[in-house]
């Protein structure tokens, strides 16, 4: 018997899930019969442990410590309980999406927390992540747990952890919780959770309170004449977005029926992410055949929002980039009178800085992720280019695809009442601040070693020019710069105001390059400036792909 097979047999003894027990028993038997595929899979399941960090824990489902399963979930919950008890205890609220075993995982978390003397409350059904983020502060909890893998593939699931301020965890809490989880995994068998471990299942009141808060954002507006095609991307946003839009007085959305109801297998898309190629095909087709003004898409846990607009030059419709939506929402927040700090992630396009400066409001850049954006003091608006927007930090200190969609619809309705389109608004921003063109190049890699090698090679042998533009400065983001904590990334500042930022993804086995060029608009010739910017961006993208093989 190999060491891995011995570990697998020990795991069987504490696995409460008949499904993962069965699959693990099959893997062990096949590996013993010298099946090379089974041996490789078994080795990977037990090679390491899913890392718990600032994004929580996320991975493919299956048996063993390197997969998401009920043992890992219970160990994670026990580690979180140890951390909370060491910091004063209190209550926790738990939510979940509609992925495979999400509800079961949520109940396991609640049972473990309750077993250890904490008050545990579970949201009444599968709901968007922003409802969980809202519930933490509304209920006055010390922590929140969301069982979700967001827009990852169907085989994945995960856990996100928030503390009492309603923001995702950051250092040092992440390291302390991770250490506690490791202690539990090494010394405790948490498979036996008492069946009488009690938690509270919340009623509809918390959802009603979220809807009240969301719709209050547009209570003073009179324009509602916007109709949208909407896809929930097989996730949990459909019913809640429809309810919020109806309550706010907007026409009923035209739902993409094939994707409206939760389905953990995501049958109509390869990846349930509005940014992925093909994911918006059904929504675009429905928009072509309907009399609508916008396309709105949520990701599966509805914390992200994608927008499409009519565009005669793009076969009738085009999806806006995450940056374009962020710039427009930032501008609209200012028109609505918002003040405070306007913030964005480092890798997002930098037009928001120019928009904020023109209105004489404070502006901040943060590291990538809403765990950083949400902690900006006096936050009024925050966004990241990966379709994440915070428009109501007083209630949800995280990205929220429901309220972002609502305020975007309000903005589009206001423009429509003035005889303008969303594209007209983008054109005016270009005239005021220049054409900012952004794009992303990402490459999936087989393992973390290849990612580290790519980053090392770029640091050791940086380019002197990119896309024909000279590299004027290289910033190694592992060193503190611009008031930011160290992070694994490299920033190349290019002549003419362009830049390239290269960093490993925090949630997927990818290296990502974030590209930007800026073109001045001469004599309001926006088309020529956009054409020049797009051509420059294409050249930069070609070089970036070569870097990453």
Explain this structure:
This protein has 549 residues and is of the alpha/beta class. It has 4 domains: 1-47, no CATH class; 53-58 and 67-202, Alpha-D-Glucose-1,6-Bisphosphate, Chain A, domain 3 (3-Layer(aba) Sandwich); 208-431, Alpha-D-Glucose-1,6-Bisphosphate, subunit A, domain 3 (Alpha-D-Glucose-1,6-Bisphosphate, Chain A, domain 3), CATH 3.40.120; 434-547, Alpha-D-phosphohexomutase, C-terminal domain (TATA-Binding Protein, 2-Layer Sandwich). It contains 18 helices and 21 strands. It has helices at 3-14, 18-32, 36-47, 70-86, 102-115, 129-139, 173-187, 205-216, 238-247, 257-260, 281-288, 322-335, 351-358, 370-373, 401-417, 422-433, 448-460, 526-547, and strands at 57-60, 91-96, 119-122, 143-147, 156-163, 200-201, 228-231, 254-255, 294-298, 305-311, 316-319, 341-345, 362-366, 379-384, 388-390, 435-444, 465-466, 469-476, 490-494, 499-504, 510-519. The protein has a 6-stranded mixed β-sheet with strand order 1-5-4-2-3-6, with helices on both faces. Strands 16-21-20-19-18-17 form a 6-stranded antiparallel β-sheet. The chain has a 5-stranded mixed β-sheet with strand order 8-7-9-10-11. α2 (18-32) packs across α3 (36-47) and α4 (70-86) packs parallel to α5. The chain is globular. The relative contact order is 0.09. The mean pLDDT is 93.
